Amino acid sequence: RSGEMAKLTQLIDNEVFWAYATYTTIVLLKMMLMSLITAYFRITRKAFVNPEDTASFGKGENAKKYLRTDPDVERVRRGHLNDLENIVPFLGIGLLYALSGPELYTALLHFRIFAGARITHTFAYLIPLPQPSRGLSWAAGYAVTISMAYKVLKTALYL
Amino acid sequence: RSGEMAKLTQLIDNEVFWAYATYTTIVLLKMMLMSLITAYFRITRKAFVNPEDTASFGKGENAKKYLRTDPDVERVRRGHLNDLENIVPFLGIGLLYALSGPELYTALLHFRIFAGARITHTFAYLIPLPQPSRGLSWAAGYAVTISMAYKVLKTALYL
Amino acid sequence: RSGEMAKLTQLIDNEVFWAYATYTTIVLLKMMLMSLITAYFRITRKAFVNPEDTASFGKGENAKKYLRTDPDVERVRRGHLNDLENIVPFLGIGLLYALSGPELYTALLHFRIFAGARITHTFAYLIPLPQPSRGLSWAAGYAVTISMAYKVLKTALYL
């Protein structure tokens, strides 16, 4: 049992790991941006969910009317949740994939498609672009993650 | 201060890490499956949330009636969120646990219970099975994660 | 191209990695606590979302009245989702940061502020404290994560 994983200590010092670090940081920063966009829409649309957030608008009914949902806020929140659902698998599977000894060229291809797909997905969701823009960008990120999972299981399967 | 963690470079080349890689990939793939099940129910139940997703059903009121919530869609979404809430801790704590030098037998026991618990949880949620099926499968995964966290803190505590 | 990342095999055996393991485990356990608090409020407020969860209250209308939302339950759930949105970036970026060769003092500062900010955020959300308590504690964790991301990209950028 001395597969690719055995060479991990060498592999981790290499460009594939640097590439993983770079693209993971980029997609996580992109995901974090969704919090700021949500806050921006909550403030400009005056649509809050916590009573303590509307206290500066006065008391009683005057503040209460800002406790409401807004379509733009909800749209950003859905995009944020979709990021979580897709970037969490990338975070875990991508790390294991980077440690499974892929070719640099192949690894970069996977990471770049994933990052490009998630950035496109955000634009498709927020503008919004007509379908199937959002669907296809989601599917591209999903397919790339499945491909990396396949490589991990082929290299490291230990049940 | 030369505890178990100090031997990390050797440990990472071993079967515990391979086992972590395998079970993490399995539970992340299972979580990703929830996206496909959500899409399946949205399409078969014709229950969408984004106006651009109903454009193919025509314009105006004709398309608008498909912008609705459906109990089956919401159920899958709750299962998906529960996965996120429980698999994210496993992803992080499990990795640190795998690097903390556990016995292979003990580690496999933890990983297998966690993966089995989450798969059972999904069936219990989606069928749905009567309680306490869902509650117990959730608790099994939760308990195993706490047990791994205890081992990590015992090995690596550095405040 | 032999930057800080190249020394990874040594770095991983060190106190920065131990500190990362400790603080990550703490914030993930804190996040897991949100599940228990949600369950506590669901049971004490008798506010459930799945019909199978109210079966023990009897059948028909008698059980159905407990299928409702409760402001306290929803508040904890929002805090839980906010944890996911912020702790997932910390999990990934923090790991890469720990591997990027920071000074121990600087790394501890980052990890401690993050953990303190997330714990404060939970108290601010659940009590709730008047704003800007929740906003500031959220911003502190966010800023620290950005700072770590900057260090990772400065060390490992490989596009």
TrEMBL record, chains A, B, C:
<dbReference type="GO" id="GO:0005741">
    <property type="term" value="C:mitochondrial outer membrane"/>
</dbReference>
<dbReference type="GO" id="GO:0004364">
    <property type="term" value="F:glutathione transferase activity"/>
</dbReference>
<keyword id="KW-0808">Transferase</keyword>
<dbReference type="InterPro" id="IPR023352">
    <property type="entry name" value="MAPEG-like_dom_sf"/>
</dbReference>
<comment type="function">
    <text>Conjugation of reduced glutathione to a wide number of exogenous and endogenous hydrophobic electrophiles.</text>
</comment>
<keyword id="KW-1000">Mitochondrion outer membrane</keyword>
<keyword id="KW-0256">Endoplasmic reticulum</keyword>
<comment type="similarity">
    <text>Belongs to the MAPEG family.</text>
</comment>
<keyword id="KW-0812">Transmembrane</keyword>
<comment type="subunit">
    <text>Homotrimer; The trimer binds only one molecule of glutathione.</text>
</comment>
<dbReference type="Pfam" id="PF01124">
    <property type="entry name" value="MAPEG"/>
</dbReference>
<feature type="transmembrane region" description="Helical">
    <location>
        <begin position="87"/>
        <end position="115"/>
    </location>
</feature>
<dbReference type="InterPro" id="IPR001129">
    <property type="entry name" value="Membr-assoc_MAPEG"/>
</dbReference>
<protein>
    <recommendedName>
        <fullName>Microsomal glutathione S-transferase 1</fullName>
        <ecNumber>2.5.1.18</ecNumber>
    </recommendedName>
</protein>
<keyword id="KW-0472">Membrane</keyword>
<dbReference type="GO" id="GO:0005789">
    <property type="term" value="C:endoplasmic reticulum membrane"/>
</dbReference>
<keyword id="KW-0496">Mitochondrion</keyword>
<keyword id="KW-1133">Transmembrane helix</keyword>
<feature type="transmembrane region" description="Helical">
    <location>
        <begin position="20"/>
        <end position="41"/>
    </location>
</feature>
<keyword id="KW-0007">Acetylation</keyword>
<dbReference type="InterPro" id="IPR040162">
    <property type="entry name" value="MGST1-like"/>
</dbReference>
